What does this fold into?
Amino acid sequence: MIAGCAPEDLTPAEAAQELARLAAALDAANLAYHQRDMPEISDADYDRLKQRNARIEALFPDLKRPDSPSDQVGARLAEGFGKITHAVRMLSLGNAFDDDEITEFDDYIRKYLSLGAGGLAYTAEPKIDGLSLSLRYEQGILVHAATRGDGTVGENVTENARTIADIPVTLTGAPDILEVRGEVYMSHADFAALNDRQAETGAKLFANPRNAAAGSLRQLDAAITRARPLRFYAYGWGALSAPLSETQMGSITRLASLGFVTNELTRLCQGPDEMLEHYRAIEARRATLGYDIDGVVYKVNDLALQARLGFRSTTPRWALAHKFPAELAWTRLEGIDIQVGRTGALSPVARLLPVTVGGVVVSNATLHNEDYIAGRDSRGQEIRDGKDIRIGDWVQVYRAGDVIPKIADVDLGKRPPEAAAYTFPDTCPECGSAAIREEGDSVRRCTGGLICPAQAVEKLKHFVSRGAFDIEGLGAKQVEMFYHDDLLPVREPADIFTLRDRDAAQLARLKNRDGWGDRSAGNLFQAIDEKRKIPFERLLFALGLRHVGEAASSLIATHYGTWDNFVAAMDGAAACEGPDWDDLLSIDGVGKVMARALVTAFAQQAERASIDRLVAHLDVQEARRVQADDSPVAGKTVVFTGTLEKMTRAEAKSRAEAMGAKVAGSVSAKTDILVAGPGAGSKAKKAAELGIETLDEDGWLTLIGAT
It folds into this structure.
């Protein structure tokens, strides 16, 4: 991540660098936490990292990555369990770390819903540090239990769940269909007793109660689970055949009446002041609760308002987790390494004398860029009171959800006399090309382009990443191997899809290499072939173009529909003017910086040739569209302008897209409907000139049946 800078202070280049670095580490953290039940970082750190990503992506939507925590819930399923598809997705929560963010959360809710001042109630409850579980009851009978998994599909742990005393097998007076969501956990006392028994038998000790609970629930033998002291708190629900109540608090009370254990510290709060008061009360009792918590969860109490607020890709807008503070430690900076990313950015990384911070051993930290090392932010203002960072310094390491922590301060009193100011390199350490810093950019970049091995390898790693082509068996390690292989080199994406044919023509075939065999080689080739059919938006994102993230790729793909249409439009917009250029800029969320990056990539001869060679091996699928055939606006392009009085612009856009409409940011000949509120100016005039249907807000609500 970009250490020392708030998301609001980042430039687009800095934001892209941070998101790329965080994404790689989070994939490993997801697998360690959700699949192996052996977390490498704490829940608090992981959740706060997700919040930081979400904030950056909100500021830079075109840079959003698919492997960002904002687009991930849980991890891939482990083998050995059956799969259950959740009727309602199990989402994660957005996070906050200080008091101001709670006030901002309340302000955001009010603004989104166009609410004025006055009482807005929230529930506040401890956030249990355990394993999420969904219980489905039909006609009052527990029919299955599933872990969260990746949020859409979980592991079938029904028999194990039946052994937990806090989970009723039958219910009286429940809706015909009821999915209860909650947390499986282990108390401190039970955890200590379990580890004592493990030690007596010579078995492996558990690292913490959460690890013990997760490992116990995910046993293939239910008898082992039965012998473990697991507990369950209910805090929510999924699918329902009938509402439990009109409010969050009422629904929790109803769950308790049905026989579920709910948390006695759940309170109803009127606004941020009471929410923060209860947060501090829970924090004060944290050490004496007898079980692990890592924060407090706030939820809008009125379920009708929750429905209006809806969801982001993986988090509800109506809920927030307020996490407990991070920790600090002091250690020595032993060196500074320079890493080169796929866009050529030179990123300095601090190598530290290992130190334990919040239960995790830290040996490196991000240094962001040369300004940060020198004690300046992206605007030239002093940070750390202007203190620079030098090799040999005694530095304060701060972990606030960062897999790669940041350096918060420097102790000048312990600075060695021989410590010299750090000189940032002006040549690429990988290829020797000049590393220049363009005006307005705080990042120095290698100019080597395709000749720089570091950039080429990082681009290939991005190409095969989870949100891009996601080729099973072709990860970062394999990319490195193939890139440096003399017989079967992979130097650009198209080379991946010729591997099978080139392998067949070789005497030293892949199956004969160390670490490979007939099965592993065959599996890789099959996995590659399975990805020859690829959705438009995933292909565009996989190219790794600057400023074009996953969200932007999806918007662009939806706008153009097919790859051929898109390529023709990029050719037509090559001069950054004319109808195709205007049409590109009309896409809501596409600005001039991103548009120029797109047309430049397709206009550069070498890059275009590489893309064309790749596409020749692919079957690029038409962009997915929202299925809303009965919607009066399905397939239509809508533009909102002026002030909307009955809903916010964000709510209007979300509702239009949910009904199958495309929302554009500017009026063009392709616009079908202009929704104009008070204060509409040039867009309304242009719509009139083009003869485009124009509606006021009431007319729009009538059209979509929302009056």
Notes: The CA atoms of residues 394 and 411 lie 6 Å apart. The chain is about 35% helix and 20% strand.
